[in-house]
Amino acid sequence: MIHKLGRKFTDIFQKNMPDAFVFALVLTLITGLMAYFWMDTTPMKVVGSWYDGFWMLLEFGMQMVLLVITGYSIALSPVVKVAIDLLATKIKTPRQVYFFVILIGSLLCMVSWGWVIITAVLGRELANRIKGINYPFLIACVYFSHIGWVNGLSSSIPLLLNTDNNFIMEAAILTTTIPTAFTLGSSLNMVMLVLFIILGPILMILLIPKEDKGLHLEEMLESKDQEVRISIYEEARLLKLPFRAVSDFLNNSSILQYVIVLMGFIYIVSHFSTKGFDLNLNIMIFIFLMLGLLLHKTPMRYVIAMKRASGNVSGILFQFPFYAGIMGIMIYTGLGEQLADWLASVATLETFPFFAFVSGGIVNFAIPSAGGEFAVIGPTIIKAVQDIGAGLPAEEMTALISRAAMSIAYGESLTNLMQPFYLLLILPVMGSGIKIQARDIMGYLVIPFIALFLLQSAVVTLWPL
Which of 16, 87, 208, 407 could disulfide-pair with 353, CB 3.0 to 4.6 Å? Predict the structure, then answer.
């Protein structure tokens, strides 16, 4: 029964879900119309807000591109290839691949959501080595493993609330920071973490499709020799001149590269020794960059690896500005704050976490960034919590605010299963050389979305403070 239902949802998505870019265009029009009719604004204000927001994710978009290609280039190194070959000898069946990818991916993303790139690389390489894998379903498993990041160390909202002079404090909504003991260290978050780590893999394993004809990686490759190319080492050797040259000496100098790597690792050690476990996007990309240089040994080999890793990032480059434009409409027309106000107006002390959870989920479709979303609806949600909980002891009020903030984060993360924004990070790695779109993947995630929505709704509402 569950397999038939999963197949039905997959068919529906394949027939009706457009390309991820078209999804962004349709969402732009829907958000613009909502702002026009609900906010009683002018068409020019909507268009102007869209344009002003268009450039809000340029830094983030470049970070995403670098995250993809630096992470992918590490996977192209000989050391990682040997490690994955060894791992493939231990994993024998597609079912084991699905389970392992979800479990390891979930644990990696508990450290940092950007490590989904490592999971994507692992999934692709295992699919090359183990026969019988339903490849679109494997991509869905990799994407599914990503959504538990809000329970982990890189969760944006709890880290923001624990940062001195954050924008909530500057707006005088809060007078002090909220320690992560109330958010990431709360019993609520521990329950969510266990729920995701244990039930997540089991849920996806129950949904393994029975029919996978034509959906194996080797069958989907546009060119059968796509994965059979000369090694990076051999390509670098072939680029050398037939005579001794200074340029070849520099291009293939491991000493030059190792000096740069040493400088990089000195900074990395300094960063963590002075700032603690501050694993932000910039330092993560820098670590990936230095590690890639180390593993590829010479500048020319690293150039070749980065060229191969960069071949499929166009979706990030041109689609992120459109999502940023949607974000601009939400922010500059006041639509995001108005939506939060409306949801807060119908909540009570008992139901408020649920409405915060729903708010996070809904707004995520228009602002697929936890930090950006919280900047829009966070102040309104927190003020509403303070009004509803007026008279509570200070510690209970802090716990209630923390629960509302985490509920926003859980909702934001969950609806990523229905929102292909972050799939743009995975497809450059796993979609290389094949014809595949978001519609081929998202249908597998409908049942997990429904199941987790019901479970998480119950937990955020009923679990004691």
Answer: 407
